[in-house]
Amino acid sequence: MPQDEWTVKPVYEFSKARTAIDVAYSHIYIPLSDNIVGSSAVEEFMDGLRGGVALGISTTSFYNDRCGWGGKFAFNRYSNSMSDLKTTINTYYLGLEFLVRIPAANSSGAWILSLSAGPVFYDEKMEITRYKDSSMFFGFKSTAEIGYDIRLSKNVFLGFKLASNLVIVKVNYQDDLNNASAIEVGGGLRF
Known about the structure:
Blueprint: E1 17-28, H1 40-50, E2 51-62, E3 67-82, E4 85-103, E5 109-128, E6 131-151, E7 157-170, E8 177-179, E9 182-190
Antiparallel strand pairs: 1-2, 1-9, 2-3, 3-4, 4-5, 5-6, 6-7, 7-8, 7-9
């Protein structure tokens, strides 16, 4: 028998390009300074500020069946208010991404592993009664993700992900670097 008859081919081939649109719950790590710890009102306010939403889009071009390079844009928003105080934190990220796609045995989906890195802009707005303050900082972000894409049709997938973001921000008026890292759980559509 010819060898081609024994070759098992997947039900569907995977495309050479992938676009992912994600929505996720994001939990930011905001360290508290020593002079804030112990103030229950401030700690409660900061705890409410830690949970937020993340929106993202990424595109990848595969150079072989499993590995590809691409770009990623992400927007994260964290907000909380208490009596006369309101704080909103927005981050904007644009990075280069390396992605590995590991197809499931029956091609019904694929495991996704990715790493990305690039610049991040950190925008913090605070309002107290009638006083408003806004600060924008520049930093660096790296992301590690694991996910699974479930095939809905030939080229459409429903994806789920868990991501860990390391964000280092340089605050203009401080000599130190600040940590604004986050963990995300979410999903979306892949094409």
